[in-house]
Amino acid sequence: MTSAHDTKPKTAAIIVAAGRGTRAGGDIPKQWQYVAGRPIAAWTLDRFRACGHVSTIILVLHQDDIMRDIEGISFDGITRILGGETRNASVLCGLKEAQKQGVDQVLIHDVARPCVSDTVIDGVITALNDAKGAAPGLQVTDALWTHDRGQLSGTQDRSKLMRAQTPQGFHLAPLLEAHLAHKGDAADDVEIARAANIPVQIVPGSEDNIKVTTPEDFARAARILKGHAAMDIRVGNGYDVHRFGDGNHVILCGVKVPFDRALQGHSDADVGMHAVTDAIYGALADGDIGQHFPPSEAQWKGAASDIFLRHAASRATERGYTISNVDCTLVCEFPKIGPVAMQMREKMAEIMGLDITRVSVKATTSEKLGFTGRGEGIAALATATLIKP
């Protein structure tokens, strides 16, 4: 039997995005401006989407933004509501919406902090197991001065000073009551909570959890986001077989190799290049050669296989991927591959626009076993690795 104490609290992230952000410059509010290739708000929303402890995300918006789509941002699964004239008013709107959704606790976060980490978010949520309020902070380490019209007038003790960050987490009911009772402005929700005698536990913040406020902050945020972005690495496999027929040469990995037979196929039957092409398509989850170049279409009869490989490589580039390396193994008793392997590597590297050190072509026999061992044809296996930074 499950007790009330075993029930996981329902947590909402309230993202405050109704401000205009004039200090950041630009023609549009800073939350819609791009950093590291995406709008700031897109980064922020995805940080909380990825958090397994957040059950709902409430985005508080200005009246000019509430009904329009923002390029580069998906609002799937996001509750959009209208904010107020001040930050406090906007947070209160978010708290009331959270109450409607039956939320137990809230994380209130500035949309302009796109670099917040899972560690910071999880730290706040964990602290709420025992505390009514929790917020991340960093110890002030620089010397602090006071001044009078640009002239140093004194120093300030920094031993008990901390820099505040978000998300600031609270049990919903007492914070909503505190907001309803608060008069005037406040720097953040911690100030409102303390005015209502709600204790707030400090959890470790992060130097990367910056608030984008000035034009200079965009460059710093971009460096952080690019450094933290997960690299997308994909691996694909390709396999192809062609039988021998009448002829006086074979085409393997783009190289014409003299031989007393030829490989049969709808195109030039370049078994090695076909395997590499399918490996790239496979890494992209983009079908295979037969789907892109159907053998039922006469235009591909006898076609050079570099057409297929160039197409696969261009598909990878169009989707933002770099081909890191390809490895092709030809399985045959003959012809001998070793003497022409370097030419094959050079040709394949040229077609894909790669350095030759990223292209491997090698061969093996099947010890006289199977159709390749009996000299009936050639098989090829290939692997391709694609990377998107």
- Give the amount of beta strand, in percent: 25-35%
On the 0 to 100 scale, the average pLDDT is 93
CATH-defined architecture of the largest domain: Alpha-Beta Complex
Q: What is the CATH first-level class name of the largest domain?
A: Alpha Beta
Provide the CATH superfamily of the largest domain.
Spore Coat Polysaccharide Biosynthesis Protein SpsA, Chain A
Helix-strand category: alpha/beta
* Number of discrete helical segments: 11
Task: Describe what this molecule looks like in 3D.
It catalyses: 2-C-methyl-D-erythritol 4-phosphate + CTP + H(+) = 4-CDP-2-C-methyl-D-erythritol + diphosphate; 4-CDP-2-C-methyl-D-erythritol 2-phosphate = 2-C-methyl-D-erythritol 2,4-cyclic diphosphate + CMP. The protein has helices at 40-49, 87-100, 118-127, 172-181, 189-195, 215-228, 271-283, 289-292, 306-318, 341-352, 370-373, and strands at residues 11-17, 34-35, 38-39, 56-61, 78-82, 105-110, 133-139, 144-148, 151-156, 162-164, 168-171, 201-204, 232-245, 249-252, 255-258, 262-263, 322-331, 359-364, 377-388. It is of the alpha/beta class and 389 residues long. It has 2 domains: 9-228, Alpha-Beta Complex (Spore Coat Polysaccharide Biosynthesis Protein SpsA, Chain A), CATH 3.90.550; 232-388, 60s Ribosomal Protein L30, Chain: A (2-Layer Sandwich), CATH 3.30.1330.50. α2 packs across α4 (172-181), α4 packs across α5 (189-195) and α7 runs parallel beside α9. The protein is elongated, with a radius of gyration of 31 Å. It starts with 10 loop residues before the first strand and ends with a strand.
